[in-house]
Design a protein that fits this description.
This protein is of the alpha+beta class and 102 residues long. The protein has helices at residues 15-31, 64-73, 75-86, and strands at 2-10, 36-44, 53-61, 90-98. It has one domain (2-98): Alpha-Beta Plaits, CATH 3.30.70.
Length: 102
């Protein structure tokens, strides 16, 4: 199983709006095709040098081919409105991991 994680850092003043957007719009759009599943949005705790809050948006994917398909066919239409809405008040990076063991 492949874990597709995007870590977002958002300004504190928009974090509630960000969470609502992720739960109401981003997640439903992301799993609509069935290529991504088991969405989980988590708050990341830790000592951060920058102001703001960090969140991890995690999905499961059956294999790398399915993730590549999602990236090429769907991600643009899903990430574009997110980036447009939050602009410079949000930054993110993605990580792809393979589950080993339990």
């Amino acid at each position: 199983m492949i874990v597709f994680n995007t870590t977002f850092h958002v300004e504190e003043e928009i974090h509630e709006e960000f969470i609502e957007y992720m739960l109401q719009r981003f997640i439903p759009m992301s799993i609509q095709s069935g290529l991504l599943s088991s969405p989980r949005l988590s708050r990341i705790f830790g000592k951060e040098e920058e102001e703001g809050l960090s969140f991890a948006m995690e999905f499961l994917v059956s294999d790398l081919a399915a993730l590549e398909r999602w990236n090429s066919e769907e991600s643009g239409a899903i990430y574009a409105p997110l980036l447009e809405r939050f602009k410079e008040k949000m930054a993110g990076f993605s990580t792809v991991m393979q589950t080993i063991g339990r």
